[in-house]
Design goal:
It is a multi-pass membrane protein. Belongs to the TonB-dependent receptor family. This is Iron complex outermembrane receptor protein. There is one protein chain. By secondary structure, the protein is mainly beta. It contains 5 helices and 40 strands. A hairpin with a 5-residue loop joins β31 and β32.
Length: 774
């Protein structure tokens, strides 16, 4: 049997075996009574409100992961994924259940309660600021699926993630060193890419002192595989004339590739790659804490420097002399009896991108007049966000013309105030939270793409959004087995200072957009009940409203005459509104705990970028409102501790998802079709076996069935340009040399499965790691 089809079958067999585990008379990892329904660790309380399916992961789970990026630590979580394309990728967008991998604005991500979600846009270009914290500084990863708590705004429509970093608990020093290698073979690209990460830091905490300080520094350097491949352009007249272009050899014919739009299955040849991605991350973090009695104060400052270079695009083409061919003045090439366009000013481009950002936050918690008050204020700013690209290969290597894109001032401010108190059977929580997101982006044509001299403005886009929300929630004790939680929130949203400037003939035109304001009311309901035989059930219902981002509203372009270009964005987008339901059932059978979950979500006016008809009946590619999308599904999650043998821990989960476009007047062909990039099946598993007191072996598994690539369900494939099936088998071994020294080695994607999310995922990758604590 093919290993891809064996993977989901093996996972289902494993889940069935766990479900059939005998009830043993021993302590289990199940929640006691009606307490929090949490999958994973039980030693630390979850840090976000656990309504619906909730996951809490700690050191036991982290030991089972080959983690290069912080987001790697949650890659085996149930019905969850992160779009990480290579080690050091800074465009890693998380997705929950039926959330598309470019719907970044539906995920609320926090570090120690400070928001790091980039709600300046809604795509892979706006990922959370994962680089603010390194993998070894993560103490706990908490994930909640869906918008079932009134504490959080509508951006929790997909789910919520909170990263808890390690606190200073004693005076110590620590260091970690990683090395990794990826042999890579795709089309005409043949190479092995290497990288490393080094981290060190210290903690200061005197016994009995309320003060604590933890400081860490990390550098990661890696060369990732090329993320895109060059395809020549198609013209019907050229295609039929083999003599129109310069004869070349070396092109790769990928007959399974994405057909050229508007043709009868014609597939363009692959003529080169976009260059390996050389990435460098530097991260510095300092956390100062004060704890005395019930009072807690904390200040966090983190800075992240990132540079990505794509300076070595590779052409597969050879001219008549056998020399590498990067294009010429003819702007056309002839391959196997057909001619294609190849513009030397737009192919084999070189690029450098810088993204430097910093997070600063302060948090206070303590008793005030019989209430517990928690407040935090934070800002994340992009100190530098600049990308430079050359106009083709020749300009790239000679310092010729190109473009520079700058963003600034760019970033966001967030604040939260929560007040809680218990009154008899009632646990009351109420408060306010707010955010301000602002961006200003310029695209400049330059005479020297590296030095960015001689700049002439091409476009400028700018805008702000502000949201203020108030909530109240009451957890009502209806007896020793039953807890009813009622909540509601009201949000006031405003978009303003939006506009764009672009070339208009010999000058420039600026178009400003009127400020918009809307509000939304979102009720919440949750009922949890524990009953005989260690069973726990929970029903959660909610509505949520996710308001448009700056990027969806304002970031686009003007036509050459200065008029509005409807192919870029939509300042009149409606907010998307969801209705959600989740039913959980959890039961412990001796050493095995099973959680079953069924969920439902219907989103009105879902915002998505696709090709469809606008209000004037004109086909455009832009962010639009889909009238309605719908998803429902089922999840089965199993945990086994010390079963079936002592020292063996198993986490396994399977999810079935039916996510469709329900109604879409802008593109009727998409109605009833499985939503793009959402697999029908998603299976994850992690097996950790403590072979001896000092040696642990790990097996990790991730599988996702092949989804649609486009909204109409016409593109399904397993090569460049598609979103493909995914199968990854990972191995790891951990050795505790001493109490203070540990080493590990592993491999990701052992079977070298070639998976795609339009871009290629990593092929087989090897890693070694050593860590010391003093």
């Amino acid at each position: 049997m093919n290993i891809r089809y064996r993977a989901p079958l093996s996972a289902l067999v494993l889940l069935s075996a766990l479900a059939a585990a005998p009830a043993a008379a021993q302590d289990t990892s199940a929640d006691s009574g009606r307490d929090i329904l949490v999958v994973g660790q039980k030693g630390a309380p979850i840090t976000i409100e656990p309504r619906g399916l909730s996951v809490s992961l700690g050191d036991d789970q982290f030991a089972g992961v080959n983690a290069f990026n912080t987001e790697d630590l949650i890659k085996y979580a149930p019905d969850f994924f992160v779009r990480t394309r290579f080690i050091g990728d800074n465009n890693a967008v998380p997705g929950f259940r039926g959330t598309h991998s470019t719907q970044s604005a539906r995920s609320l991500v926090m570090v120690d309660g400070f928001v790091v979600s980039n709600f300046l846009g809604n795509s892979f270009s706006y990922p959370p600021a994962w680089g603010i914290v390194s993998p070894s500084e993560v103490a706990q990863f908490d994930v909640v699926y869906g918008p079932y708590s009134a504490h959080y705004p509508g951006n929790s429509m997909g789910g919520i993630v909170n990263i808890t970093t390690r606190a200073p608990t004693e005076t110590s020093a620590f260091a970690t060193l990683q090395g990794f290698a990826q042999p890579y073979r795709q089309y005409g690209t043949r190479d092995t890419y290497y990288g490393y990460a080094a981290e060190t830091g210290f903690a200061l905490k005197q016994a009995g002192s309320p003060w604590g300080l933890r400081v860490s520094f990390r550098r990661l350097e890696n060369t990732g595989q090329p993320q895109q491949f060059y395809l020549p352009g198609y013209s019907p007249a050229l295609y039929a004339d083999p003599a129109a272009g310069t004869p070349v050899t070396g092109a790769i014919i990928d007959r399974a590739g994405v057909p050229v739009s508007g043709t009868d299955g014609i597939v363009a040849p692959v003529v080169g790659d976009y260059s390996p991605v050389e990435t460098r991350h530097d991260q510095a973090r300092a956390q100062l804490r004060y704890d005395r009695g019930a009072f807690h104060a904390e200040a966090l400052v983190a800075y992240w420097w990132n540079r990505e270079k794509t300076l070595h695009p590779q052409t597969y083409l050879r001219d008549g002399k056998g020399d590498p061919f990067y294009g010429n003045a003819v702007r056309a090439i002839s391959i196997n009896g057909h001619s294609w366009t190849l513009d030397p000013a737009s192919t084999f481009r070189l690029g450098i991108a810088d993204k430097d950002e910093w997070l600063a936050g302060v948090r206070l918690e303590g008793p005030v007049a019989g209430f517990t008050v928690r407040a935090n204020l934070s800002t994340l700013r992009f100190a530098d966000q600049t990308s430079r690209t050359s106009n083709g290969w020749r300009a790239g290597i000679t310092g010729g013309a190109g473009q520079r894109t700058d963003q600034g001032p760019t970033g966001w401010y967030t604040g939260d105030l929560t007040v809680t108190r218990s009154f008899g059977a009632h646990d009351i929580a109420f408060g306010v939270n707010s955010n301000l997101y602002e961006t200003d982006q310029r695209v400049v044509d330059t005479a020297d793409w590296r030095a960015t001299t001689g700049g002439a403005l091409r476009t400028r886009t700018f805008g702000r959004t502000r949201t203020i929300g108030a909530f109240v929630e009451d957890a009502i004790d209806l007896g020793p087995e039953t807890l009813l939680t009622l909540g509601a929130r009201h949000d006031w949203w405003r978009a303003y200072d939006g506009g764009l400037t672009g070339r208009a003939g010999a000058g420039y035109a600026t178009q400003l957009y009127a400020a918009r304001a809307q509000s939304a009311f979102s009720p919440k309901f949750s009922l949890r009940h524990a009953f005989a035989g260690d069973w726990v059930a929970e029903l959660s219902l909610a509505t949520a409203t996710r308001f448009p981002t700056v990027g969806e509203l304002f970031q686009g372009s003007l036509d050459g005459d200065g008029s509005f270009n409807e192919d870029s964005f939509d300042p009149d987008l409606k907010p998307e509104k969801s209705r959600d339901a989740n039913l959980l059932l959890r039961h412990a059978i001796g050493p095995v705990t099973l959680t079953g979950s069924v969920f439902y979500q219907r989103v009105k006016d879902a915002i998505f970028s696709f090709i469809g008809f606008n209000q004037n009946g004109v086909s455009t590619s832009s962010f639009k409102n889909i009238d309605a999308t719908r998803q429902y599904g089922a999840e089965l999650i199993a945990e086994a501790r010390d079963w079936p043998v002592e020292g063996l821990d198993i986490d396994a989960n399977a999810a079935w998802i039916d996510a469709i476009t329900a109604t879409n007047h802008a593109d009727p062909a998409s109605e009833g079709v499985q939503f793009p990039r959402i697999p029908r099946w998603r299976l994850n598993g992690n097996l950790r076996w403590r072979v001896s007191p000092t040696l642990q072996g790990v097996v990790g598994l991730r599988y996702a069935s092949r989804p649609n690539t486009d909204l109409d369900g016409l593109l399904r494939g397993d090569t460049y340009g598609y979103t493909s099936e995914l199968f990854a088998l990972d191995l790891k071994a951990n050795l505790d040399v001493t109490d203070r020294l540990r080493i590990s080695g592993g491999v990701n994607n052992l079977t070298n499965d070639r998976a795609w999310v339009y871009h290629p995922y990593p092929q087989r990758t090897f890693v070694v790691e050593a860590g010391v604590k003093l």
